[in-house]
């Protein structure tokens, strides 16, 4: 019973943290369209650019790219796009990592009765 009262006493500060976390999340979401990540393949024969919304913004081919070998070009393009998406995901994850700082999840779980 005392532990539950103690958890309830933390409710106010936790709600303030939740509002702060929500504001940070909105800031990150606003940044996503402007984040840029690139990926390349074939020694930079193909370069793809992706936004933080996982949209491919550009695909560029070097002048020495094998434009007549469509199978190779397709493979290089796919590899560059996949790398750009992977890099964008890592960038977004890094941005999102700062959102939950300072939240005591053990206290939240105790308050919800999910931990002893």
Report on this model:
There is one protein chain. The chain is α+β, with helices and mostly antiparallel strands. It has one domain: 2-Layer Sandwich (Ybab, Chain: A), CATH 3.30.1310. The chain contains four helices and three strands. It has a three-stranded antiparallel beta sheet with strand order 1-2-3. A hairpin with a 4-residue loop joins strand 1 (36-41) and strand 2. Helix 1 (2-9) packs across helix 4. The chain starts with a helix and ends in a 5-residue tail after the last helix.
- Using only CA atoms, what is the Rg? 22 Å
> What's the architecture in CATH terms?
2-Layer Sandwich
What gross morphology would you assign?
Answer: rod-shaped
The rounded distance between the terminal residues' Cα atoms is 12 Å
Proportion of β residues?
15-25%
Number of helices in the DSSP assignment: 4
Q: Low-confidence parts lasting 5 or more residues at pLDDT below 50?
A: none
- CATH structural fold name: Ybab, Chain: A
Describe the largest sheet: 3 strands, antiparallel
CATH class: Alpha Beta
- Percent range of helical residues: 55-70%
Q: How many structurally independent domains? A: 1
- SSE pattern: HHEEEHH
User: What order do the strands of the largest sheet run in, or round the barrel if closed?
Assistant: 1-2-3
> What structural class do the secondary elements suggest?
alpha+beta
